[in-house]
């Protein structure tokens, strides 16, 4: 870089000298000696000003080896110090080691950092399973010891069972990455699997889970990354404090474990339902279809076609209440069992109608679905309108919907020229 600056200055010097020679030659017949001196003085001043400007502009960026330093890094560090926050950048999170899709989503939604570790608030977790993209933010909030201590000391007692636990705590509690994986697992766990999950935690078979057993089992949910190797310290979190108390001596029995899982599933479903009901006791059939399809990988235009089909086939809205809404989505957690029945129908080359669908759900999963909900589902996944379910499409879309917390493709938006074209295309569609 120093060589480049010097060569630039030399080129400007030669240009100025050539200009002065031409100027002196043209004016030699009429110009006096003093005029030539003035012209030379003006040229010299111009050269010095130009050279000085370039030197002051480039001098801070010149270093040994002729390489420009990354000034943006310095700017980020200064801004970090001023704000007391850790500014999130792609390089900060992903350049040092490969990460899984689940960890990528966790890092995208996590809004806090403490002692070099990234944490989610309860609000972050709810948003990660109900929203496509995280809220815009400048950076992660840098938690101080006093703030973390205050959060932990004000953790709600597990005796206060509620389907609004996470919404009550919101940003006044933190959870770790391994706890995030544990909670995601809960959201897709059928009731029949509660006992199996409990027994996996209960290593000594005393029908209670203590803090040590919980931490040991958490390791199953995490694949160690390079950044975590050798870090054996376990930071106290809101979830640990909620389960095992301030001293870590409390235990979880089976009934409390099941209630926590039920309440978390219900809380997430309530958020989805109330988003569309807006205080009313029911949502429309088209809104039900929207909830069913929006967390899948289905193309947006295709999803709109499905929803429009429901509106056309069901012009008179009857509505779907929360209990029927909840029953259907809890049935989806038993989709693997129901798939066996569907495959039997497919093997026999027999289509499935609404009555057979409801009976198959009850036999395979024990759930009794409202007939109107079943009818609505058929309007979504009955391509030909002949009253028969499109089984493969139903299974594919529903499996995709269940694992919404593992999605990262919505975070990977096009940038640059491709992003500009995508934006223009979207705007033209809306027009």
Can you tell me about this structure?
This protein has helices spanning 2-27, 33-58, 71-83, 90-94, 101-109, 122-130, 145-153, 165-169, 177-187, 194-201, 211-218, 238-244, 254-277, 285-293, 300-313, 322-332, 335-347, 354-365, 371-381, 391-402, 416-430, and strands spanning 85-86, 112-114, 117-121, 140-142, 174-175, 208-209, 252-253, 282-283, 320-321. Residues 1-5, 57-97, 225-230 and 408-412 have low confidence and may be disordered. The chain contains 21 helices and nine strands. It has three domains: 2-61, no CATH class; 78-263, no CATH class; 280-406, no CATH class. The protein has 431 residues and is mostly helical. The radius of gyration is 32 Å and the shape is globular. The strands form three sheets. The chain has a five-stranded mixed β-sheet with strand order 1-4-2-3-5, with helices on both faces. One of its GO terms (cellular component) is mitochondrial intermembrane space. It is found in: Mitochondrion inner membrane; Mitochondrion intermembrane space. GO terms for molecular function: calcium ion binding.
N/C terminus separation? 50 Å
The largest sheet is: 5 strands, mixed
The secondary structure category is mainly alpha
Number of individual domains: 3
* Cα radius of gyration in angstroms: 32 Å
Helical segment tally?
Answer: 21
Average pLDDT, all residues? 78
Would you count the extended β strands for me? 9
**Structural shape:** globular
The SSE string, one letter per element, is HHHEHHEEHEHHEHHEHHEHEHHEHHHHHH
């Amino acid at each position: 870089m120093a060589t480049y600056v010097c060569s630039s200055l030399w080129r400007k010097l030669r240009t100025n000298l050539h200009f002065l020679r031409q100027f002196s030659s043209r004016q030699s017949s009429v110009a006096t000696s003093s005029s030539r001196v003035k012209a030379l003085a003006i040229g010299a001043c111009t050269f010095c000003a130009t050279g000085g400007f370039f030197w002051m502009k480039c001098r801070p960026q010149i270093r040994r080896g002729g390489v420009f330093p990354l000034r943006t890094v310095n700017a980020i560090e200064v801004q970090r110090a001023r704000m007391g926050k850790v500014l999130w950048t792609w390089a900060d999170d992903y350049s040092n080691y490969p990460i899984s899709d689940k960890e990528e989503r966790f890092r995208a939604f996590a809004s806090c950092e403490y002692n070099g570790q990234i944490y989610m608030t309860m609000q972050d977790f709810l948003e990660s399973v109900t929203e496509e993209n995280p809220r815009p933010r400048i950076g992660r909030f840098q938690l101080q010891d006093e703030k973390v201590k205050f959060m932990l000391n004000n953790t709600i007692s597990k005796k206060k069972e509620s389907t609004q636990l996470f919404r009550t705590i919101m940003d006044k509690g933190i959870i770790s990455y391994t706890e995030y994986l544990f909670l995601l697992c809960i959201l897709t766990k059928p009731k029949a699997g509660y006992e199996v999950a409990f027994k996996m935690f209960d290593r000594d078979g005393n029908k209670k889970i203590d803090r040590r057993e919980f931490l040991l089992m958490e390791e199953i949910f995490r694949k160690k990354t390079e950044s975590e190797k050798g870090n054996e310290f376990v930071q106290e979190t809101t979830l640990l404090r909620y389960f095992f108390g301030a001293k870590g001596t409390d235990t979880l029995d089976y009934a409390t474990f099941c209630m926590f899982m039920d309440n978390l599933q219900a809380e997430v479903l309530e958020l989805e339902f109330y988003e569309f009901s807006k205080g009313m006791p029911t949502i429309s059939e088209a809104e039900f279809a929207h909830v069913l399809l929006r967390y899948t990988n289905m193309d947006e235009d295709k999803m709109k076609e499905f929803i429009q089909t429901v509106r056309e086939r069901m012009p008179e809205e009857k509505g779907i209440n929360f209990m029927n809404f909840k029953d259907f989505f809890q049935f989806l957690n038993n989709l693997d069992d129901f798939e066996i029945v569907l495959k039997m129908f497919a093997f026999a080359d027999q289509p499935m109608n609404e009555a057979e669908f409801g009976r198959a759900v009850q036999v395979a999963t024990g759930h009794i679905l409202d007939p109107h909900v079943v009818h609505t589902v058929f309007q979504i996944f009955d391509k030909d309108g002949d009253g028969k379910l499109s089984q493969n499409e139903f299974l594919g879309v529903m499996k995709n919907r269940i694992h919404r917390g593992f999605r990262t493709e919505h975070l990977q938006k096009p940038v640059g020229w491709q992003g500009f074209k995508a934006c223009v295309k979207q705007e033209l569609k809306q027009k």
